[in-house]
Amino acid sequence: MTRVTLDAWPERLEAVASTLDPPLGPVVVLEETDSTQDAARRLALPVGAVVTTGRQRAGRGRLGRSWHDTGDEGLAVTLVRPEAEATRLTLAYAVAVARFLETRVADAVCLRWPNDVMVGARKIAGILIECRDGVAHCGIGLNVGQESWPPALAGVAVSMRQLGAAGERLDVLAELLPTLVEAERLPEGRLDDAFAARDGLVGTTASFRVGRELITGRVERVEARAGLRIRVDGRSVWLPAATTRNAGGPDG
Asked: Are strands 27-30 and 116-119 parallel, antiparallel or unpaired?
């Protein structure tokens, strides 16, 4: 794998982070790491910190799935935020990434509750938030420059490059950070509306885990914070957000 030079990353990202409202920082840029979330935890970084890397080898998706090695083509970043905001930030960051992509790709971008950003049936980004010791480690993975995928992800993952929106990862992150912070400030009603406007689940058949039980049905309604209603064997079933996980597909 070609070694990517990250020399310009810290100064560029710190300059962007310091101008945000509220400002972010410190910014930590690692040449390579297992997971930016784990790195933020090991370094005991404070609220406001940002961690990114030239290569993330072992990122995580929901339900413990592994996120494909970013190599020098994918973007992985973790923001350290207050734990009390974790549920809201899952929605806010999904909306933010969707908004960011909508200005760069011609294809329709949608959200697969609660934390996947999709283009059609293919995943382009995901958000995973893990809480510990009063802080939320908000991990975001975005497929930027990939041109091909391993067999397990072929047809279910897509990158910005494949959609005609090629760009350097540093430029992408520098432009994405302000969008993330802007979405954090959205009033709850506007955030819920923004998520609902991009919902990609209603009308589809999907599987969800509630505890150990796997439930499959046609999605009738999504209330991003509260949960969702699906039709199973002719019955309408409410699945509360607090105990429901989207069983989804492989993570890109």
From this structure: unpaired
Which segments of the chain have a pLDDT < 50? 1-2, 63-65, 252
Is-contact 48 80, C-beta < 8 A?
yes
Contact between 102 and 165 (Cβ < 8 Å): no
Instruction: Please enumerate in sequence order all residues whose Cβ is within 8 A of that of 18, keeping only pairs 6 or more positions apart, or say none.
Output: 24, 25
Distance of CA 214 to the CA centre of its chain: 23
Q: Is the CB of residue 74 less than 8 Å from the CB of residue 111?
A: no
Encoding tokens for residue 223? 């209330």
The per-residue pLDDT for range 53-75, each reduced to its tens digit, is 999 987 655 544 455 566 789 99
Q: What is the dihedral of CA 212, 136, 179, 202, to 10 degrees?
A: 20
pLDDT of residue 1: 44
Domain boundaries, the chain: 9-197, 205-246
Note whether 162 and 146 are within 8 A (CB): yes
Query: Using one digit for the tens of pLDDT, what is the confidence trace for 12-51?
Result: 999 999 999 999 999 999 999 999 999 999 999 999 999 9
- DSSP lists the bridge partners of residue 140 as 77, 127
CATH class of 9-197: alpha beta
SS3 of residue 252 by DSSP = coil
Q: At what angle do helices 169-184 and 9-18 cross, to 10 degrees?
A: 20
CA distance 83 to 137: 8
pTM: 0.91
Give kind and range of the element (H or E) at residue 239: strand 235-240
